[in-house]
User: What shape does this take?
Amino acid sequence: MSKDIEKASEHHLSPFEQIKRTNDAGVEFWSSRDFSTVLGYGDYRNFEAVVEKAKLACFNSGYRIEDHFVDVTDMIEIGKGGYRPVKVILLSRYACYLAIQNADPKKEIVAQGQTYFALQTRRRELDDEQVEEDRRRLLREEMRLHNVQLADAAKGAGVVEPVDYAIFQNHGYMGLYGGLKRGDIHQRKGLKKSQQILDHMGSTELAANLFRATQTEEKLRRDGVKGKQAANQTHHEVGAKVRQTIEELGGTMPENLPVAENIKKIETKRRKKLGKPKTPRNKKSE
Assistant: This one.
């Protein structure tokens, strides 16, 4: 292995990149035994202590250990065509980052690994941030479109005046947010009066609200709901059903999800990057 590392260094390829593996789904991982060898641990049992510390750090950071450390059995060759089973831990990139932070700092390769995984982890974080921004933009636009359709369905049920539609919307929010009205959510999230709550929702919260809106619209039309009270009740029931589903799946309740950066800022940054002018927005479609 040491010769392989020297060869990799000559070609400016990190030894950690060399031992990286990828499964059929395209997910990258590292074998704990390969990892320990690269770090110069002659006795694998010494590296197991490092992994245990890394697991504790993972748990204390609020992540599920089993998502980053997977115990498996591998077969290694012992000579003359023989094999024997050995325990191996498959490490995610984050697990490797934690392990390298708990490894022997006196080893030069450990210092190199700390730099490598710190940079790679930050790079992945930036990629994830971009994915989240793209999801938010897509879901926010879908929310605008479906709010228009929801308003039309509510109008068909008898919710005509703006004040009545505001009450109708509050019933949906109360169902989804455990009794909180729009103003309550606004206050709980610490938003200013000028800020739209939908503009500060992450993709998970937006998706829950989009499901609430689309299913309420469909139910109003399908069931031929008539009357403001019946429409309000329908919206509340659908919101409560979405909340129940989130709870059953072990998800975070929407009122407890963090406030996200204003989607308008993200859209502005994207327009500047693409050189596109600002598109006027109809407030009724918020």
User: Anything to note?
Assistant: The radius of gyration is 26 Å. Strands lie at 21-22, 28-31, 69-79, 82-91. The chain has eleven helices and four strands. Residues 1-11 have pLDDT under 50 and may be disordered.
